[in-house]
Design goal:
The complex is a heterotetramer, with two copies of chain A and two copies of chain C. Chain A is of the alpha/beta class. Chain A has one domain: Protocatechuate 4,5-dioxygenase, Chain B (3-Layer(aba) Sandwich), CATH 3.40.830. In chain A, the strands form two sheets. Chain A has an eight-stranded mixed β-sheet, sandwiched between helices. In chain A, strands 5-6 form a two-stranded antiparallel sheet. In chain A, helix 5 runs parallel beside helix 9. The longest helix of chain A is centred in the first third of the chain and has 17 residues. In chain C, helix 2 runs parallel beside helix 7. By secondary structure, chain C is mostly helical. Chain C is globular and about 40 Å long. Chain C is built from nine helices and no strands. Chain C has a single domain, classed as Dioxygenase LigAB, LigA subunit (Protocatechuate 4,5-dioxygenase, Chain A, Orthogonal Bundle). The chains are: A alpha/beta, C mainly alpha. Chains in contact: A-B, A-C, A-D, B-C, B-D. Strand 7 of chain A pairs antiparallel with strand 3 of chain B, so a sheet runs across the interface. The structure holds fe (iii) ion (2 copies). The site of one fe (iii) ion has 6 residues of chain B, from loops.
Amino acid sequence: MAKIIGGIGTSHVPTIGIAFDKGRQNDPDWKPLFRGYEPVAKWLAERKPDVLFFCFNDHATTFFFDHYPTFALGVSEEYRIADEGLGPRPIPSLKGHAPLARHIARSLVDDEFDLTIFQDLPLDHGLHSPLTMMWPTKPDWPAKVVPLVVNVLQHPLPTPRRCFKLGQFLRKAIESYPEDLKVAIVGTGGLSHQMIGERAGFNNEKWDLEFLELIDRDPERLARMPLEDYMRLGGNEGAEVIMWLIMRGALAPGARKIHQSYYLPMTTAMAVALFE
Amino acid sequence: MAKIIGGIGTSHVPTIGIAFDKGRQNDPDWKPLFRGYEPVAKWLAERKPDVLFFCFNDHATTFFFDHYPTFALGVSEEYRIADEGLGPRPIPSLKGHAPLARHIARSLVDDEFDLTIFQDLPLDHGLHSPLTMMWPTKPDWPAKVVPLVVNVLQHPLPTPRRCFKLGQFLRKAIESYPEDLKVAIVGTGGLSHQMIGERAGFNNEKWDLEFLELIDRDPERLARMPLEDYMRLGGNEGAEVIMWLIMRGALAPGARKIHQSYYLPMTTAMAVALFE
Amino acid sequence: MKYVFDLETSARALRLNRFLHSLTVASKRKLFLERPEEAMQGLSETEKDMVRHLDWKALQDYGASFFCLEKLARTKGVSNPEMVAAFRGEGLEEFLKTRRVPGAR
Amino acid sequence: MKYVFDLETSARALRLNRFLHSLTVASKRKLFLERPEEAMQGLSETEKDMVRHLDWKALQDYGASFFCLEKLARTKGVSNPEMVAAFRGEGLEEFLKTRRVPGAR
Ligand SMILES: [Fe+3]
Ligand SMILES: [Fe+3]
């Protein structure tokens, strides 16, 4: 049977990917960020999950507002790297675990999650800007992904409670897959930032650290918070951390945070946390 | 406050629309079909709903399998008529009630329905082949629509139970809309037919009549039936009658069927029923 | 064979279904009717051959969605009863004999 | 103004956002860079003018999604901090003074 071996929460700021592509690992401005991901990369290299289940959002790249899903699950064997205006990043196409993804689709739809199913579409930095901090790209990706795209752009967004519940049923879906697979769940987004309006540039380090504590110790409390509170505390765009709740909901209730890093250089608080 | 004044269940066979466009109202082969819709057209002309909320499916016309939603709600002011291979039907563009549709979107997403939202996309015969049997097209449509597109094509499909529950929460959504509007709900699809495989051409009149009885008297029982039973009893494509359950779920529990017509000329059993 | 259009079938026949679906665009239909080989570029030889011969049963068994096949049928002036008859392994006239109102199509 | 990208905003600015989104296609970017007026055909005069002047604040207030604006910014070589500064009504240098690591962009 497939097994969830742990979870990762991570920012997905596009500049993370650009810093990687430009080889800024030792640039003093970026070094603290790269250092923060090292324990996660090491954990992945040692624990060798067969699949990373990625909860992230597309940034009006592949999905446009004429047809916009709340939760869209990818079921392809392969995903191209999307062009976001600078041409695709120079990294390999992603390998999808299609049989697991299709099993998850069946299980979640049966449990009354109204998924959109997608295939043969390219994926944007929401997935692969954090991925290159954690997984080698050469000679190729070490294993496969299953992408879940979440609407955090066009309101109404799914409620935090719905995200947490989706995680809980995702666990059931994965654990009922007959093949022996090791799966890690990745929740992306945040932490605090606001890119628009007079409050653009807003951050809230106090809330960020509280969030990093609650996602470990009391995710149910986060699940009960209305989305408006996330927007007020973490900024309009910072509310995307509800995607961490999907990851947290999929972990065993007794899972614990074993690593955390936080870096706030520019407009978005960049964080990574590892749960086991 | 908005109010649900009744419901309509109807087939959406494409030939219904073609028979209408070719003026076959008095052709002996089609006359029984047109007669069956007359009481419904009369009811609509008398009760004058401001909005028809339409539960139907797209037939791989507007939505393709690279990005396929379970439930997609339209929120546009206007919808073009789709080209399904013969050019668009010669009928006016549909007028959408965008403010009501957006209110429903917010209410349903808040109640944990994971809707896809669409706008500025054309609609196919799933909606307008029955519509032209019930509403005048000249000088223009008499009122507005809100379209809900349901996946009944690519498995996994939503469960019958989920469809019924969606109807119940749709009722809550509509009744909480502040403006005084009269809304009728239309559920489309079926009845028995199978278009593929060795069993292509299959019908089951006995099951059809039972379904027409249960949707009136015991929709909860229909909601408990697994999808496989619908496919076995009504044919693979006939299982699309689960969309009638959304309509039925949105009606007051005490609503009763006040008209029914059934005609099985060719491959699909064509039915229409009116509830108040 | 169960003929349920599931995610496995959908993935397997995605390229073919995408071609069939593209016939909802008037300019694609025109190209296909006038220069079919050019319109079918990108399909495999097997796929092209089934389309060339309007081999409805083979297309279905390969994984074509009935609703995508309808686009090809409309483009080529073929009715649904003709397709249904082909799936049953019958001719149209034979199939129509099993129907209550053979004229209603 | 709350700057929540809701369904009302989305509908109001759909045409503009569709144009911005189209810049994810390399050939559209090329056309826009070489013959902007041709690429902007279909936009209203107001919309064209905001794009011509890269008036980030006006585009935002009109209903452009930040994530669609990012496509225009990448195409024109503008960074996110420049856009954020414009939304705040500041110059880039002024904005960077408020940041902990001004080089990290
Ligand atoms: Fe994001
Ligand atoms: Fe149908």
